[in-house]
Design goal:
Mean pLDDT: 89
Strand order of the largest sheet: 5-4-3-1-2-6-7-17
Distance between the termini: 47 Å
Oligomer: single chain
Number of strands: 25
Low-confidence stretches: none
Shape: globular
């Protein structure tokens, strides 16, 4: 269901097959990868199923990124074509021209017409014969870009097997019955939104798709009484609760899957007091979304802890020296199971660092209790989660270092009531340089998505570093706290 338009799976399949045929006619062959630039949920759903049927891989691009960011991702992935919804065709055409690939326009919004695919710019693709070897469960279905603390863009490759295993794990953990409705207001270029499409399809459940998050629309959807599950990040939940008031939750709502960042304890307590069935969740793109979840019925403290690994998924905590950490000890969260990514596309070094002996080294910090319950302590020590978007300090610092008058830069998070956190940049100007906040903001805006551009710039004579020259972000955070009234 998208807005007021309801499409059953028979109709969705028919439209997806029509789009699959159009892709094939335009020269897209099984085993190849195509990029999608679209904010509309219907286009994403159709392209996902069309790619699966054709036997090709879908690279879902974040429409909020700037042209330079998108161009780098297209170049790193090596796709031959980019498909765009009508409102994004101009951007896609420019990207295609710069990257030497084909650009297509997909029209899918009309409830009465077949989806159409039109070549709009770039090279034309020559049709190829189908490769039946590209259809196995090990074949890559999704490429999704994530990033590490270095700010290096990496595309995680997720196979059909991984996505199906994730769906099975969710079904055995939280459950999803045929006919139930799952409200999806997460971006469809993130694994959190895409995984809902996969899970609902396999279970025969209904995905209620919103093109963007709006707390008023979510409240109206929940008030209708038809929603059984909804996925949110903490900042979304806070805004929904503000709009909801003091009413009890609707009886049919049985799970609020809460992920994307560690939720503040007061927010969890507030939701619990109202009776909302909150299920704090830890997940990541490299593991096809959900890894461990706290059951809504769990009442013991801490409210954000005691997360249980999905059936079929294993968790362990490793010390800095690579030894297994005892229960209650902090360390790196490691994950094993069929849900793991196959690789980082075109990046063997990063793949070998992340996947070791069948385990995914997440880089996240947590601990397991005596019963195997997970408590996540930090989502990559320096990661900033702003409004559900991952913001990596090193990426912003790299952009700032491109400015001729910037000698050094360090970025940390500052708490924000609306978005959860926002980046703040500490900047050391070059000697005799004349630079101000307006110039730096414009410099960043030309290179970074809006949600990555720092809210504030603090000019300083030097950045704190240890003996090895590593930036001490904790001291920058302390400076921010001292500066605030």
């Amino acid at each position: 269901m998208i807005g007021d338009v309801c499409i059953d799976y028979g109709e969705l399949g028919r439209r997806a097959r029509a789009l699959q045929a159009a892709l094939h006619v335009q020269g897209v062959a099984p085993g190849e990868a195509i990029a999608l630039l679209a904010a509309g949920a219907l286009e994403v759903a159709l392209l996902l199923h069309a790619a699966q049927s054709l036997g090709c891989t879908l690279l879902a691009l974040n429409a909020r990124l700037t042209e330079p960011e998108l161009a780098r991702q297209l170049a790193a992935s090596g796709v031959r074509a980019i498909v765009a919804e009508p409102s994004s065709v101009e951007r896609a055409s420019a990207l295609a021209a710069g990257c030497g690939i084909a650009a297509f326009r997909v029209d899918a919004q009309s409830p009465s017409l077949e989806p159409t695919l039109t070549h709009v710019s770039g090279q034309r693709l020559s049709a190829r014969h189908a490769d039946t070897l590209a259809r196995g469960e090990e074949r890559a279905l999704l490429w999704l870009f994530t990033s590490g603390t270095s700010g290096e863009a990496k595309a995680a490759e997720l196979s059909q097997r991984a996505l199906r295993a994730s769906a099975r794990g969710h079904e055995r953990s939280i459950g999803l019955a045929t006919g139930e409705r799952w409200l999806a207001c997460m971006p469809m270029f993130h694994i959190g939104g895409l995984s809902i499409l996969v899970r609902c399809t396999l279970a025969g459940a209904s995905a209620v798709l919103h093109d963007r998050f709006d707390e008023g629309a979510v409240v109206a959807e929940l008030t209708s009484g038809h929603i059984a599950l909804v996925s949110l990040v903490p900042t979304m939940l806070a805004r929904v609760l503000d709009a909801w008031g003091e009413r009890p939750p609707p009886p049919r709502l049985r799970c609020v899957l809460l992920g994307g960042a560690a939720a503040p304890a007061p927010l969890l307590a507030r939701a619990a007091a109202l009776g909302f069935p909150i299920a704090p969740t830890y997940g990541l793109t490299e593991a096809a979304s959900q890894v461990a979840t706290r059951a809504p019925a769990e009442k013991r403290e801490p409210l954000g802890g005691r997360l249980r690994a999905l059936p079929g998924t294993e968790l362990r905590i490793m010390n800095e020296d690579g030894a297994l950490a005892p229960p209650g000890s902090e360390g790196e969260i490691c994950v094993r199971g069929e849900t793991l990514m196959t690789r980082y596309v075109g990046n063997e070094v990063a793949t070998s660092r992340a996947l070791r002996d069948g385990w995914l080294r997440t880089g996240d910090v947590g601990r397991l209790d005596d019963e195997g319950g997970l408590e996540v302590l930090d989502r990559r020590t320096d990661l900033i989660v702003s409004g559900g978007e991952n913001v990596y300090p090193a990426e912003i610092e790299n952009a700032l270092h491109e400015h001729a008058d910037v000698l050094e830069a360090g970025v940390v998070a500052r708490a924000d009531e609306r978005f959860g956190a926002r980046p703040v940049a500490f900047v050391v100007p070059r000697p005799s340089a004349r630079i101000d906040e307006v110039a730096l903001r414009a410099h960043c805006a030309a290179r970074l998505a809006r949600f990555k551009t720092p809210d504030a710039f603090v000019f300083t004579d030097a950045l704190p570093r240890n003996a090895a020259g590593k930036l001490l972000r904790r001291e920058l955070r302390d400076r921010l706290l001292r500066r605030r009234p």
